[in-house]
Structures are given as C-alpha cells and as structure tokens.
Amino acid sequence: MNRAILLISCPDSKGITAAVTGFIADNSGNIIHADQHIDEQSNTFFMRIEWSLEVFDIKREKITEAFIPIAIRFRMTWQLHFSDQKIRVAVFVSKHLHCLYDLLYRYRSGQLACEIPVIISNHSDAARLAKDFGIKFSEFAILHENKLVQEKKQIDILEQEKIDLVVLARYHQILTAGFVDAYQNRIINIHHSFLPAFAGKSPYLQAYQKGVKLIGATSHYVTENLDEGPIIEQDTVRISHRDSLEDLVCKGEDLEKVVLSRAVRWHLDKKILCYGNKTVVFD
Amino acid sequence: MNRAILLISCPDSKGITAAVTGFIADNSGNIIHADQHIDEQSNTFFMRIEWSLEVFDIKREKITEAFIPIAIRFRMTWQLHFSDQKIRVAVFVSKHLHCLYDLLYRYRSGQLACEIPVIISNHSDAARLAKDFGIKFSEFAILHENKLVQEKKQIDILEQEKIDLVVLARYHQILTAGFVDAYQNRIINIHHSFLPAFAGKSPYLQAYQKGVKLIGATSHYVTENLDEGPIIEQDTVRISHRDSLEDLVCKGEDLEKVVLSRAVRWHLDKKILCYGNKTVVFD
Amino acid sequence: MNRAILLISCPDSKGITAAVTGFIADNSGNIIHADQHIDEQSNTFFMRIEWSLEVFDIKREKITEAFIPIAIRFRMTWQLHFSDQKIRVAVFVSKHLHCLYDLLYRYRSGQLACEIPVIISNHSDAARLAKDFGIKFSEFAILHENKLVQEKKQIDILEQEKIDLVVLARYHQILTAGFVDAYQNRIINIHHSFLPAFAGKSPYLQAYQKGVKLIGATSHYVTENLDEGPIIEQDTVRISHRDSLEDLVCKGEDLEKVVLSRAVRWHLDKKILCYGNKTVVFD
Amino acid sequence: MNRAILLISCPDSKGITAAVTGFIADNSGNIIHADQHIDEQSNTFFMRIEWSLEVFDIKREKITEAFIPIAIRFRMTWQLHFSDQKIRVAVFVSKHLHCLYDLLYRYRSGQLACEIPVIISNHSDAARLAKDFGIKFSEFAILHENKLVQEKKQIDILEQEKIDLVVLARYHQILTAGFVDAYQNRIINIHHSFLPAFAGKSPYLQAYQKGVKLIGATSHYVTENLDEGPIIEQDTVRISHRDSLEDLVCKGEDLEKVVLSRAVRWHLDKKILCYGNKTVVFD
Question: pTM (2 decimals)?
C-alpha cells in the first residue's frame, strides 16, 4: 500500500487547498490524510497531504513534473515523499546510553520506519549495544585539536551510508557549522531541559540549584546556535524537594527517551515542517 | 469578518475534499481552517471547513441550496453554521457552584462566544450569582412525584429562550429520556471522574476508597444511558495517600472547571462531530 | 480542634526528630502530621510538625518558652503557628482579573483559611468585583514620578489592616526593594511562564515566538531580583502550532489560577519553608 | 553506608513517633529519612524511618529484639530491612517485551537495587533478550490442562532462586490463588489501562471503542481478584480521534514502562505499605 506525501509551505492565498486536492482527485487518487495550517502572523500556508498510489493515474516518477505548475502558481516550497522509501539514520551517542537503547528497541520492534546502519560515538561505551543489535559501530575520540579531522571522517561515513537523518542521542560534542549546514533540518538533538530554560551544560544540576518544581526535555533540530534550533517536542515531569540530583537525572531520562523518540518518529513519517525557528508538527 | 463553517460526515470515497474545497474556491472563498479525519474502522470521512464570507460569490442564504448537490453526491450528513450566529446557552446547576462560577467568568471576559439568558436549578444557591451577572434565574424543586411536571416547565423556558445548548454544570438530577431526545448532542454534562471509571454517585468517594493515584473529570454529551454519552474531553491530576477526601474534591473541582469549559468552547466554535458513541474534536 | 504547627530548619545532627517529638509526647500532645527533609548538599534539616492542643499539657502562650531550650540546643530557625490564627491577606491586581476572581471564589467557598480585608490596584478594573465580594478596594495610579509615594500609602494600608501576606495576582508593577524587604517571604507572585524561561515582559509572546510546545506558570516569593525569588509551584500545559497567541493566553490563564492558588493555600497552611533560593513544600 | 529501614503500621495513638525516634536517637542512630501518615478514616498510623548503621549502638542482628517492646506496646505490624540486602526478583513475561526490556536496561544501569536471576515465560520470545543480559530463561507453555503442574514448577524455581519479588511484566496468564497467596504483596503486575476502567482483556481496544481522550496504565500488587489488587502507581497520556488503535498501543507502552518501573523501584526501596486494598507510597 504505497503512498505519496506532499509537504507544502507557501504564502497564503485563495484556492491552494482546492488546487492540491483537485490535482489528486482529478488523477483518481484517494486522500488518506490531509492537514493544513495557516500562520496568521506571517500569512503562511502549510499543508501535509497523503494519498494512496494504488490506482493513481500518474506514475510515481512523473508526479513531480505534473505537480510543478501548481507549485509555481502558488510559489510553493515543497517536498514529495513516498512511504516505501526508508529513511537511513545514523545515531550519535557519548556515554549515556538510555536514549540509544530506547531507540534501538523501538527500531527492532518496528515502531520506527527507518534503517539504522551505523552508530557513531566519541567513546566506546555503546560498542556492545551496537553489536547486540548487529549495527556497525564507529568510534572517533574527539580532542580540541582533531575535531575537524574527526568530523570529516564522520561525514564520510554518513555519505558512504547515504544517511538522511542524524540523531544526537545524548552526543556530548558540539557539531561545527560546516556539519550542521550540510544536514540542515536533518539533525535531531535531545536536550535534557525544558528549553529555553537551562540551555548549555549540566541542565539537571542547573534545575536542581534553581529549585524548579518540574523538569523537562526538548527535542529540536540542530542549528549553528547551541540549543536554539526549532523545537519539535517537549515534555515535563513533576519533582519536589524530596528529589535528589540523582532522582532528577533518573526521572529526566524517562522524559528524554519519550521526547526524542516522538521527534524521530514524526520526522520519519514526514510530519514536520520547519519555518523560521519554529515547527509545524502534523501529528 | 463573518465566516461560514461546514461540518460534514459521510462514507469515505474519492474526491470529497476536492469537491468541497473546489466549491469554496470556485466561488472565490478563502479557506481559513480545514481539517479532516477518516475513521478507518467504519470507513467514515469527517471534515470541518471554515471560510471567510467577505468576498464569497454566493449569498449567505443561498449557500445551503448551492451545496446540496455535493452533499447528495457523497451522501453527507452535514451542518452549515455562521460565526456571527451566537449560540444561546442555558446552564443547569444544583448546589456546587464552582463550574457555574467559572463559566460565568469566562462568559463575561469574552472567552465563550454565546448568550446565556437563563440559569436553571433545583435549589436556590445559585440565585445570588445569577443576579451578580444579570442573568435570569429559575428554580424548580424536583421531587420524585413532580419530576416530569417540573421538567416540562424547564423545557418551556428553553423553548421560550430559544436555547441551543444545555450545560449541566454539576446538576444533580437525571434528565428523562424525553428531555434528552429533544436536545440530542446539545446537552453537555461534567462528570467528576475519569469515565468509564466511577460512573454514578459520589465518584470522589469511590476514587478515595479504591485508592487510585490519579483522579479525573469527563465532559460528555448526555444520552439516555447515565454517564455513557460521547466523551468530549477528559483530564486527570495526581493524588497520593496524603490527600483526604476533601483534598480530592478540591483538586477535582479545578479539573472539572477546565474540562467542562473546554467542551463548551469547542461546541460553541462548532469543532465537535459525534459519530456512534464517540466524538471527533477538531481543536 | 485547635492545632499548633512548628516549622523548623537547622543544621542536621543526631536526635533532632526525637527531641521535637519527645517534647510533644512528654506533654501529652497528639501528633497529627509530621514531615521532615534533609538537604544533603547543605546538610540542613527541615521539619513541619502539627499537633492537637486539645489535651496538651503546656498552655498555648507558654509553648514558645518551653520549646526555646530545644531550639537553642540544635541552633534552630523556627516558627510556631496556631491553626486558629487566620492570616490576613491583601491582593494586588492590575487589569487581568482572572486570578483575583479565582482567589475570591475559593475564599468565599472556604478553600482558603484567611481574611482578605483589602484589594489594591493601580487601575479601577477590579472595583466592581471587590464590591461584589464586600471587600475594600484601594486604587493607586502609579507613575514613574509618584511610585515611592504611592507605595508608601499602600504600605500604610497593609499596616493598618495588619496584613501578613501580599498576593500579587497579576499586578503589573515592580515593587521597590524597600517594600520587598519589609515583607520578606510574605509576598507571593504569579508569573505567566515556566521560570526561568521567559522572565520579564510578555512571556506568552516570548513563548509564541520561540515556538515551545508547552507553556507554563510559576508562583514564587518575591525578592529584589525580578522573577528570581524562591519557586513555590509550577505547572505546564501542552500547546501546538494550531494555538494562536490568544489561545496561549487562554490556556495559560487556567494554569495561572491553579498555580497561584496552590501556593497561597500552602502558605496559609504553613507548609512552605524557604532556604537559600529554594522552597521545601510539605504538601 | 548501610542503613536500617523500619516500616510500621498500627492503630494511631499518642507517642508513637516519639517512641520510635527516641529508640533510634537513644542508641546514637542518625535518621536519614522519616515519613509518617495517619489514615483518618481507619485511624491507622503508618511510618517509614531510615537510619544509618555506621555508629548505631545496637548490633544489626539485635535490633529486632531491642525493638520488640515498642512494637508490642503500640500493637505494630512492622518490618525491618537493611539497605544492603538485595531483593531477588523474577520477571514473568509473555510476548510483549517492552516492559522486560525496559526493566533490564534499568537493572544493568544500576537504577534497580536488586538481583534478577531468572526470567520466566509461557513463550520463547524473551529467550534472546535473557541471553543478551546473561539471565537464566525458563519457558513453561501453559495450557488449560497443565496450568497447575506448570505453576508448581515455576514456584519450585522461585524457591530455588530464593525469589522475594515477582514482577509480571505483561505476563498474560492469570495466576492461581495458591500462587498469589504464597507471594502476598510480593507480586507486582502492570495493567495497560487506568484501573478500575478497562479491567480484563484488551484494554486498549476497550479504550478505543469507548472513545476516551486519555489512556492510562496501572501497576498494582496481585490479589485473587483479577486487576483489583492495591494500586501502587498510575499515569495517563492524552490521545485524540487521530490516534488509531496501533497509536494507542504505542503511546500506552511508553506509560506501562514508566509506571511499572516506578512501582518496582519503590518496592525495592521499601517505600510501599499496603493496608486494606490501598497503598501508602513514601516517595
């Protein structure tokens, strides 16, 4: 049951929805999901539409060509995806393995529609887990003086493996601007706080010292500005004075896993559109 | 800025979205919101679409006529609303006034797009509050032997006041089947538990005795079966062994207010579609 | 059923709990609640203990004298309260009345064990509400040039009315250091964000522009540093791209009411201990 | 840093806290945590107290003897634990492995202070996972006609392995009364609904058909009455009409893992007291 998915953003105007849905209907397509949103501040129109290709009149490889006139007419930024194209994911991790472990279990049990050919780390801790799951493991110790060289090698692997999405599952290294640029809106990070609170280092310690009554986790696309990229998902959990710093870490890790895995799943299902520094998530 | 709103449900088939959005676009309408849903189990299509009437080619009183052919073609159940038609609401209440109080504050501060011409009760407790807000108050003491007679008088008032929606804001009387039938999907109740748990009497006491770790509240449309109508909204809050029965009531009342007011607002904004015993809420 | 409440903090050492509970037991007191906490970082001991005075051997006015030796022995900072002493509260408000309205309803329905003799504002909007509830209303227009003079008059009223607790229920003026010092740990503010995120002006607009997926509210004691005092309570609610700025305000106001009222109730029930810039809440 | 932990319940009366804390203080013990609770309906006193044995005057093996007079005086039901005694856990599972997987990761990473010598199942699915973690795996296919025989063998293993706690991590067999009696308050189950709603089979399907707006999970001690034992922990997550039955399962599994692991951790840390059909959790 292969499906096509269109993700569209453009200046709002009359007739966009009718043109897009008409395009599908006129070619015998059956719409499975359609969702749209208008950002009133910027007057921008967003749409995600998914239809069955079982009896669509236009061949898969001709859809782009057929859609171009509509895209031009409404000045659209758009992407066309097919549900049978599996996204290829590389997971980066350091020493905290809970998010990696969680992703791998979801991957194995079929919750994540992707391929994970490689795990990359600046430490060796994840090697055994990678082996258990039959995934290639590449270790690149990062020092101040070799960072660019090591990153270059990491990117080589990403290219060899045809990686579409990089997931930073508690990878405690800041990527260089060159890396980030090469994978714009294709690097998802988990930060262990409710951003914009407690950006940067040791967010649990910051939260503990501040005396907040809830802690949070945030998944976001990575941009050049640390912990400032478009937020995909957040959640919080209640804490109290009874919780030690270790309790915060323990409660927080449960949040991190859920918040990161939702973001990854939505990305794999082509449900996220970025605009400015924000996201539309058609969940 | 008047707007038209179509609420549609019908058997799913090809071309529904295209036909509806085409109808609006071909008549120069500008879609403000559009949301749709397909229930895969029953193969039913649901849609809510809202468009501006500022420059729409079809006069307001002719839209129904113009839309009928599409409705027939797809065997639609449908409603057409206009955003400038204010729904008229009657609030029923007994002795617990927190939900009434909350609704009246939201009403006064402009959060609820409705008129509330009358408050009806089987007790006198709400009389002062009604007076403070300049709303007519009608008291009908209900006994086993006069229930039908009193209900008849209540319905007379609803008809006189042209009431579209009845809100049971902790009204501790069970309406008769005749009343419920006359206002199908137009009576919203708040029940102070997470239904289907703790239906019926004294849900906080039931929850306390059961030793649950969360309590809840549920807003739903009223049907002939007590506490079993289509659920509109629910929420829960954490409790512990430290909470007495009084604490449960206190925490629960805060839930009730929010859960009831969300349901009322969604109803007023024509965002709810019922099917079978469930709801689609286009929030 | 009058009760005594001791709030204690001191350096941790052996025998504190035994000494305090022994003091009560040796004088025939019946402990109703006892809770303690040790902050392991600062090695500080905290305790809240509440006992019935029905058959206590020491007369109420002699308890302080009798307890002093224990307090000295363990170098305690301590407060003795009696449950029949009603705290006197002044509510400050500007133009957003939802929190005031909510507090007054809780006050009238008996949820808040206090007296509210006066409402103070820099605008006239709350005058009618104060009148409805039979509470004195004092308006002090605040300009840059008269701020100190007006504050002086406000403090005169607080002193006349023997106010123990000031609640800033969306009062949009920054109190001067002199005011804050005079009511240390006795001024509770509601800030409409999840602090430390979005401190200062227009937190909902900041949240909207940042694209967060949850919004929050924070109640805290006021210190000289704006929005940085000890946090008493926080909560969050989920939002999405579908929520406009107005929706954020609407959802956030529901949070503010609950988060502020919890803090006020805990303060009235003597359940909060401050230390450093944090709170222990014995809920 | 070994610690002793007393869990106490008894009829409430004067002087209990003073007697217990005095016992510790008089023997030079340093209290690390103390928490108490009085159930006002049944007039029952509950206490959990934890103290360091580093410099305690009474030898570990003599504490019971020394405490007996106090226990008798107040008619206590009580347990004495030591923090260095590792509880031995057997995990039972069927075909859904997410909870098992989650527990094993927490076990390996040090979050659960226990030993897990054996995993028992009525299917073979978990065999590989057990092997990855180096834990013995025992499979017992259960048919109607061999249930008692197989259970007998399971209990033999529990006895051989000196198991203190049985965790049913989605084990889809109902234990017989004999099994349950032998491990009273020592069998923890996870049920995938917000009990008492949707007890019994297929709770996600029941929830889907009912159209609830939140789903839940419940961890509880197992009694002879299915899904009716004392509740330890519960949580809920929001769903909408957009969620298919598969989405409910996916969201629900994340709840189950957290709700089960909290219950197991609290049990291991001796933080749970049962009374009647409820629990006190000193978290």
Answer: 0.96
